[in-house]
Amino acid sequence: MGNRLVYSPVSLLFMLLLAFLLFVVVGFLFLDLARTAFTKIGFSWSQALFVLLACLLGSSINIPLTNLECNTPLVQERQIRAFGITYRVPVVEVVSCRTLLAINVGGALIPTVISIALIHRFPESLNYALIGIAFVAILTHLVAKPVKGLGIVTPALLPPLSAAIAAILLVYFGGAPHDIIFLIAYVSGTLGALIGADILNLNKIRDLGAPVASIGGAGTFDGVFLSGLIAVLLL
Length: 235
Known about the structure:
Structural class: alpha+beta
Shape: globular
Strand content: 15-25%
Distance between the termini: 44 Å
Helix content: 40-55%
Number of domains: 1
Number of strands: 7
Largest sheet: 3 strands, mixed
Order of helices and strands: HHHEEEEHHEEHHHEH
Number of helices: 9
């Protein structure tokens, strides 16, 4: 059970790339090349770093929620050796199966708590945040793709870019205060990605034959994490 709930949602190479982007952003903060909006809503750069780093490290931890009965059989692989060569043969076993539905700590739990806390702290941002969340959720849902044996997958750059666009439009054309542009971008990108990709596709998860389906995990985590990075850089 532990191995099923503690694993990296993306490849090691991609995780290193995300870590590199994180420290590039931190470099911007150190050099004061970008006056981050974190400070405008009460976060120091060290607190911003802690939040993003906690998301990155927490991405490998999944908290189980419930078991879903699979409607389709699992596709498994068997290894057969012949003349010293190992062959991987896919085998379809028509058996009853279950998909463990979990929530990812770094890709869902932490971003959701931070988003709720920000909206609670700045209640005047609620309407703007809801519009941004809806915008990102709709776009993400339109392109989200169920993948057999994995879960729901979305393009990594879609949530952060659509969240940034929503924040800019709401601030410069929708009358939202400029001081909450980070809040709108962060909340829209994180919650919009989670709702559009995972929550609105929960009814499809049981048909994918995945041993574990994690809300905010593989397929969604990269978009949520990049939303945080891009939000940090918004002035």
